Amino acid sequence: MPLYREQGVVLRTQKLGEADRIVTLLTSKRGVLRAVAKGVRRTSSKFGARLEPFMVADIQCYEGRTLDTITQAVTLGSYGPAITADYDSYRAGSVMVETAERLAEGGPSPELFTLLVGALRTLAGGKIPAELVRDGYLLRAMAAAGWTPGFDDCVRCGAPGPHTAVAVQLGGVVCEQCRPAGSPRLDPASVDLLRALLAGDWTQALESGERERGQAAGIAAAYTQWHLERGLRSFSVPRA
């Protein structure tokens, strides 16, 4: 059976039999990959810890009829321990990997892979608040998937900004003439934060306050779930 190597981020795992696991990864070249890791639940396993959620690994697999089998795993990014040790980081990371899996269902995307690896690295580093890392990832992941939100000019008519009304179904900020009924109005600083998160400008994002972060988080979540056309289960994980 053909062997191949891949780089992948572990998105989730599930038990299989007494000692095996099915590992779901976002890979750089194959998109979402589901493969069996045999014996990884045994304490004697040499690479079980390398195939936990949020880990980045170089893997060797051989192709099977239904599921491929992982035969080797070398750690490239050990982000799992730091993320799972902090509840807020775990919640944020769970949203990120679920989003990545949903977006990658359409096929391989090296950009989505690179974006997720960078976001997990930042999250594990602990220098940026988890909610900012999450919301920045969501906005940039949606842009990488082809749904770039607009936070400058009106996304319907092009009227020059700044605008503070946001219509997620239209793709971003709208002027008063184009604003659908019920569309929320944000503080100007919250729109600035959304713009900074989309650009990856952490210096500006870190200057934001609690109110702006809350408003931006609501828009990032609504925008993502609108385009995915169904809710993300990870958003229902309760706060600590």
Identify the notable features of this structure and list them briefly.
240 residues, two-stranded antiparallel sheet, alpha+beta, single chain, 22% strand, elongated, 5-stranded mixed beta barrel
Q: How would you describe this structure to a colleague?
A:
Residues 1-79 form the DNA replication/recombination mediator RecO N-terminal domain. Keywords: DNA damage, DNA recombination, DNA repair. This protein has 240 residues and is an alpha+beta fold. The chain has helices at 80-85, 87-103, 110-125, 130-144, 188-199, 202-205, 210-228, and strands at 3-16, 20-27, 31-37, 55-62, 68-78, 165-167, 172-174. The strands form two sheets. A five-stranded mixed barrel has the order 1-2-3-5-4. The radius of gyration is 20 Å and the shape is elongated. The mean pLDDT is 94.
- Largest beta sheet, briefly? 5 strands, mixed, barrel
Radius of gyration: 20 Å
Annotation field: number of helices: 7
Specify the structural class: alpha+beta
| Tally of DSSP β-strands | 7
Q: Which blocks of ≥5 consecutive residues have pLDDT under 50?
A: none
Mean of residue pLDDT?
A: 94
The order of strands across the largest sheet is 1-2-3-5-4
* Alpha carbon gap, first and last residue: 47 Å
Instruction: Provide the β-strand percentage band.
Output: 15-25%
Task: Name the helicity range.
Answer: 25-40%
InterPro entries: ARFGAP/RecO, DNA_rep/recomb_RecO_N, NA-bd_OB-fold, RecO, RecO_C
Keywords: DNA damage, DNA recombination, DNA repair
Pfam families: RecO_C (PF02565), RecO_N (PF11967)
Domain DNA replication/recombination mediator RecO N-terminal: 1-79
